[in-house]
Structures are given as structure tokens and as C-alpha cells.
Write a structure and sequence with these properties.
Layout (H helix, E strand, L loop, with lengths): L6 H47 L5 E11 L6 E6 L9 E6 L14 E8 L4 E8 L35 E4 L4 E3 L7 E7 L9 H18 L5 E7 L7 H10 L7 E5 L2 H9 L19 E5 L5 E6 L5 H12 L4
Parallel strand pairs: 8-9, 9-10
Antiparallel strand pairs: 1-2, 1-4, 2-3, 4-5, 6-7, 6-10, 8-11, 11-12
Helix pairs in contact: 2-5
């Protein structure tokens, strides 16, 4: 079998050689398996790291409008803007500006073009450029088409009683605001078609966070959330119910509602929100207010804008729900 060896020695050598080859192959196999495991682990970790570090996708929209306000903080500008095709109707609303220098030299009444930048959770504007004065091509700036300021509707402050109004909930059932007496109530104003992440979607997200905090603590138990739409022509009870169901909202704790403008207008007007009677959101002046009402239907606090947190709202509801001395 092997030159110079008898058959018994050859068999022994052959067996030894085969055994060594098997050991070599086993080592190689184990090495290959080890490498495969390491590669698999590396591959499984790498995408997760990339996804976590990846920036949010930004969608850009060119927009045109008229400056209505320039708040002194230099971080926002209120613009009556034209329709953003495929994204948002025309409206008057404040926009965040990350670079204050972009507002230098601008004044109220200027017609501007700007870039609206939107992610899933945030929105802001940049590339703001004033257009030369040209009234023939100026966007409609008739304030009468933007708001409906009602006479004899007082501004309400903390401690003031909230008048009673009749609204319609997501089940199509009418109810009175005073039906919530004995409970703390948070009211925010939205419309379901609002896409801008800083506005209605953020109010809904903050309400969701507040709901979670209060449910986890278990105390107090006498509280409700109310998202009130100012777009009753579109936001019917069926639409509101679908909006809630898609988001898995607890409709025992969190109501959605709308109503006729003779109820919505004065209710919103108490807190500095002015909507046009029978006007769609395209003609509205959209600002943000969230109101906390105590167990005696008195104003506890008014949150202005969108900078408040779920923790702050939950804390205010706890105060509003506490037994009165």
C-alpha cells in the first residue's frame, strides 16, 4: 500500500493519516462555523446601528405667503400662506425658524417665498426671501376671510367659570361641557386633516403621552381628554371615530368631538382662537391652545402653543382633579 511498508504498517499509516485529515477538516469546519457566527452577529448589529443613527427623511415644499406677525423672540414667524399642493391647505399659522438671521430685514406685510421642511415629527422653514412689492400678484390678505372675531365673548383666565356649550361626540351623541363637572378636563383644538407635525399631530401625541402617564399612575381617576375639531363639515362623528380607532385611542377616557360654529366659535374665542363661521381650515387662523378645566368647570390653566409637555399637562390635570378645600 505504501512503499517500504508491509500491509499491517501501511494500514496503520493510512488510518493515522485519515484521522489527521479528519482533525484538520474538523478544525477548519469549526473555524468556518465560528467565522460565520461572528459575521452573522456583525451583520445583525450593523443595520440596527445604522437605522438608529440615520437622520429622519426631510420633505421640502416651496411656499408663498404674507408675513402677519414677527414675534420678538425671533424663533417664529406667522405667515398667511397659500395652499401647499399635495400637503396642506392655505392657512394662517406660525412657523418655527431655526436661523434667526433669515428674519432680518423682513417686516409685517411682506410677501415672501420660503421652503417648508417636514419630517415625521417636526417642521420648520428656511430659505425665506422677500418678493418685490407687487400688489397685482400679492396673495389674498383680507383679514375678514381669515378670522371671525365675535363680540361679547370674553377672554377667560384661570379661575374663570367656563360657560356651557353643546357639542357632538365621536358616537354622534350631543353632550354639554358641564356634563364633565366633577372631573378634570383637558381640551385641545385640532382638525383631522391637519398634516403639519408641529400642530394637530403634536397635540394628539402630547395627549397620548398624558393619557399614558395618568393611566400608569392610577391616580387621579376623575379626568377626561377632549380633542375638539373646528372642521365640522369634514370631521363628522364617523370621521372622528375612525381617527380614534386608527390610533387605538381609549374612547372612554379620550373623547373626540365637533359641533356647530355657533358653539365652537365662542368656545374657542374665550382662549384667543378665532375661526370663521362656515369657513374651512383653508381660511382659518390656526394657532394652538390647550385648556385644563377643574372639577367645578373653572379654567385651571391655558397652554399656549406647542412647547408644553405631556408631564406638564398630566401634572395640571392632577391639580384640577384634586378635592377642593
Amino acid at each position: 500500500m505504501f512503499p517500504g511498508l508491509n500491509s499491517r504498517e501501511g494500514v496503520a499509516v493510512f488510518g493515522t493519516t485519515l484521522y489527521c485529515l479528519r482533525l484538520m477538516n474538523l478544525d477548519r469546519l469549526l473555524s468556518l462555523i465560528g467565522c460565520s457566527i461572528l459575521l452573522a452577529a456583525g451583520c445583525s448589529k450593523q443595520p440596527a446601528g445604522n437605522l438608529a443613527d440615520a437622520p429622519e427623511t426631510v420633505t421640502n415644499y416651496p411656499v408663498r405667503g404674507i408675513i402677519r406677525e414677527l414675534p420678538p423672540d425671533g424663533q417664529k414667524v406667522v405667515i398667511k400662506h397659500e395652499e401647499v399642493p399635495g400637503y396642506m391647505p392655505a392657512m394662517t399659522m406660525p412657523f418655527s425658524v431655526r436661523d434667526r438671521a433669515l428674519l432680518q430685514g423682513l417686516k409685517i406685510g411682506d410677501t415672501v417665498r420660503f421652503r417648508l421642511r417636514v419630517t415625521q415629527t417636526d417642521g420648520w422653514i428656511d430659505d425665506i426671501r422677500a418678493e418685490p412689492a407687487d400688489t397685482s400678484s400679492k396673495p389674498d390678505d383680507n383679514p375678514l376671510t381669515a378670522v371671525n372675531v365675535l363680540p361679547n365673548v370674553p377672554e377667560l383666565k384661570p379661575g374663570d367659570p367656563l360657560p356651557d356649550y353643546v357639542l357632538t361626540n365621536h358616537f354622534g351623541r350631543p353632550f354639554h361641557l358641564h356634563d364633565f363637572k366633577g372631573q378634570a378636563l383637558a381640551i385641545t383644538f385640532i382638525f383631522t386633516r391637519c398634516p403639519f407635525p408641529d400642530f394637530c399631530p403634536r397635540m394628539t401625541d402630547r395627549f397620548r403621552g398624558t393619557y399614558k402617564l395618568l393611566m400608569e399612575s392610577g391616580k387621579p381617576d376623575n379626568w377626561k381628554l377632549l380633542s375638539l375639531s373646528f372642521d365640522p363639515q369634514f370631521d363628522t362623528p364617523r370621521v372622528l371615530k375612525e381617527y380614534a380607532e386608527i390610533r387605538n385611542l381609549d374612547l372612554d377616557r379620550w373623547w373626540l368631538a365637533s359641533g356647530s360654529f355657533d358653539q365652537i366659535d365662542p368656545l374657542a374665542g374665550h382662549f384667543g382662537l378665532y375661526f370663521g363661521r362656515n369657513l374651512p381650515p383653508a381660511a382659518q387662523n390656526h394657532v394652538l391652545r390647550t385648556v385644563v378645566i377643574d372639577t367645578l368647570s373653572r379654567v385651571q390653566r391655558v397652554f399656549i402653543g406647542n412647547e408644553w409637555t405631556s408631564s406638564e399637562l398630566a401634572a395640571e390635570l392632577r391639580k384640577a382633579a384634586a378635592p377642593l378645600p
